[in-house]
Design brief:
Elements lengths: L4 E8 L2 H14 L5 E5 L6 H11 L14 E4 L4 E6 L13 H4 L5 E6 L14 E7 L5 E8 L1 H15 L1
Parallel strand pairs: 2-5, 2-6, 4-5
Antiparallel strand pairs: 1-7, 3-4, 6-7
Helix pairs in contact: 1-2, 1-4
Length: about 160
């Protein structure tokens, strides 16, 4: 039986819109979920992760982790934030990402996931692509399959209610 796949596009006209989207995700994401965030520098990936952490109840909020491959933040669920911008292929097996993917006590957010190959095989992440759309506007494309497809559809419905 084929797994259901869902994709959605969210149009953000401001940082406040992007923060609202992060809060919608935080309210629905289950422990063990992985988010893979892609897009150019400055597109809002780290901002989204920071707002996600805040909505999960983290006291300390993420900043760009480009000089730290991983940081953990506490809250209703822990947030394991990986920024792999500077990680090379040889680093992928040594950073321990596979130890965090699927952990039921938290959500793993991976910026710049690149090609993880076998490492990502079991993750089945919810993928978010952040695109610059001029000024503070962003287009955020999301894709998920399986049980996360239903979650993404629910978030889309809430988003449209504004």
């Amino acid at each position: 039986m084929a797994r259901s796949k869902v994709s959605s596009t969210f149009k953000s006209s401001s940082p406040e819109d992007t923060a609202r989207l992060a809060r919608l995700f935080a309210g629905r994401l289950p422990g063990g979920c992985a988010l893979f965030l892609e897009g150019p520098i400055g597109a809002g990936k780290t901002f989204f992760v920071r707002e996600l952490a805040a909505a999960l109840g983290a006291k300390k909020l993420p900043v760009s982790a480009s000089f730290n491959l991983m940081r953990a933040y506490g809250g209703r669920l822990k947030l394991y934030h990986f920024d792999l911008f500077r990680a090379g292929e040889a680093d992928m097996e040594n950073i321990g990402l596979d130890e965090y993917l699927g952990r039921p006590d938290g959500i793993t957010a991976v910026e710049w996931p690149g090609e993880g190959g076998e490492l990502y095989a079991a993750a089945r992440p919810l993928r978010l692509e952040f695109l610059l759309a001029g000024g503070d506007r962003r287009t955020i494309k999301a894709g998920a399959e399986g049980e996360l497809a239903g979650l993404l559809a629910e978030i889309r419905k809430q988003w449209l209610k504004k």
